[in-house]
């Protein structure tokens, strides 16, 4: 699907402009404290001309045999901000909240169809599970959005947790 940069895109958001729109697809999850699973996901990056994108994501567990939805899973939302250095590289700030009672501040860089971020701060409610750090990598590969999420949680060190390939809707 062809992608056009909106006329009102804030200049600072250039390094992440490729992420705009709705993305859907499937992924895989695993972690030492949970059984591996397959999931479906939808990511939405929206903008209104100001120097940020509104990010929304929802996912659902799918049956690996049938591909059918089993139950709803994670929901997260936040704001992605980018400040360009004038050479095509952007410094990234992302604030994100989760339905599980976790809030995060992420920092990193975006350049050449790739965004890489790590947690700078993590907060959680009393009822949220223990989660201490994360690392996310998003890439534009053959027009698809590929991503990987590493996490440190439940007494485990930072390690692979989720990975997916999403197509522009």
UniProtKB/TrEMBL annotation:
Leader sequence segment: none
Cofactor note: Binds 1 heme b group per subunit, that coordinates a highly solvent-exposed Fe(III) atom.
Main enzyme class: isomerase
Pathway this chain belongs to: Nitrogen metabolism
InterPro entries: Calycin, Nb(III)_bact/plant, Nitrobindin, THAP4-like_heme-bd
Source organism superkingdom: Bacteria
Residues engaged in binding heme b: 33, 129, 161
Domain THAP4-like heme-binding: 13-168
Pfam families: THAP4_heme-bd
Residue window of motif GXWXGXG: 21-27
Enzyme nomenclature, EC number: 5.99.-.-
Cofactor list: heme b
CDD domains with a match to the protein in the record: lipocalin_heme-bd-THAP4-like
GO MF term list: heme binding; metal ion binding; peroxynitrite isomerase activity
Keyword line: Heme, Iron, Isomerase, Metal-binding
HAMAP family in the record: nitrobindin
Record's function text: Heme-binding protein able to scavenge peroxynitrite and to protect free L-tyrosine against peroxynitrite-mediated nitration, by acting as a peroxynitrite isomerase that converts peroxynitrite to nitrate. Therefore, this protein likely plays a role in peroxynitrite sensing and in the detoxification of reactive nitrogen and oxygen species (RNS and ROS, respectively). Is able to bind nitric oxide (NO) in vitro, but may act as a sensor of peroxynitrite levels in vivo.
Annotated domain remarks: Forms a 10-stranded antiparallel beta-barrel structure able to accommodate a hydrophobic ligand in its interior. In fact, this fold hosts the heme group, which is located in a wide surface cleft.
Similarity remark: Belongs to the nitrobindin family.
Protein name: Peroxynitrite isomerase
Organism: Nocardioides cavernaquae
